[in-house]
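lol ok so funny story. i was supposed to be doing the assay writeup but got distracted and ended up predicting the structure for this chain instead. priorities right. anyway since i did it might as well share w the group, maybe its usefull for someone
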Amino acid sequence: MLRHIGRKRNYRHNLRLAVLLCFTAGMVNATGLFAFSVLTTNVTGHAALLAQKLVTGDLRSARMVALWLLLFLAGAFFSSFCTGKIGQNKRFGYAIPIISEITILALVGSFGYTFDRSIIKTEYFAGSLLFAMGMQNALVSTISGYVVRTTHLTGMFTDLGIDLYTLISTSPNSTGSIKKKIILRLVIIFFFLTGCIVGGYSFLKLKYFSFYIPAAILVIAMFYDAFRIRFSKMVHRIKIRERKNSLEPR
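and the output, tada:
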């Protein structure tokens, strides 16, 4: 799900990636909005907000919004740096960004209760979440070959509309690949929205501790992927050994 790229990657890997990480991103987005009144998974709205603050002369708030844009960019750069320097096919290429995201979510969950609507703390908490979501979006885009994006839905709805038109205007004999694309986009949209709903309800019940939930999901996803690979290799080795033993003369 996380480690395979290129030819080794298949449609099921992207589906699993979409289910887990889109749900996580949706939770962070809604929980961040409830906690700090800031959308933390995309920058489109923040670009308009930056323009509004500049036009009205609110330079203090404009600086804060510009910092959020830069932090999202920095998160994407850091994730790409890790996968580029360490190697996309190596486990630590994706492990470092995910561990960093888990750490940020855990810290926000632990210290978010100190938030008192001050501008400084808004910068710290919301900015750290934007950095984490920048990391996740870049990591998932790189791993999936730019097929899956987990932190926003604008592109997904656009691509879904294009694919739906392509589906009805194409010969029924050649719609297999298009249907797979549509299913993947629907999965991304559904689990992002589901994550938003769960994130909102969890914040009402657990307050800032709700940030532990997406952190726990990322921990499970990382360890599942790592141990599943080890288990598959072990089974493969056992099969090879048994095949060799069966071919040896007795």
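The radius of gyration is 21 Å. The first helix runs from residue 11 to 36.
back to the writeup now i swear
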